[in-house]
Amino acid sequence: MKKVKDEDLERIIGQLLRYGVLLSSLVVLAGGVVYLIRHGRQLPQYGTFYGEPDKMKQLGPMWKAILRGEGRPLIELGLLILIATPIARILFSIVGYLLEKDYLYVMITGVVLVVILWNI
User: Fold this and answer.
1) Is residue 1 domain-resident?
2) Looking at residue 48, what DSSP letter applies?
3) What is the pLDDT of residues 4-15, one digit of tens each?
4) Owning domain of residue 19
């Protein structure tokens, strides 16, 4: 098996971050376009407060709303992709450190991952 080099890991992690942010941006842009097409001419009603619907708080209803062509849940999906990108980077780093047999960095990165997930 080929030994994994630090430069290879850095390159792959850089691409992961780059493509994650690019994908997130495209999804948010698509959601914004859909939202403006559907609701761009509506006047906001600031006199009445409406809480967030389930489609904005739970994944199941969010996916159904996206498939119906709604813009706000698509924007939220883009933001979730943006949040997931650094978490994926941390997971990939753990795998890379395991392949390098650098167990100190596996532990440190694992602690960082636990702290981030705990705070989400």
Assistant:
1) no
2) S
3) 677 888 898 899
4) 7-118
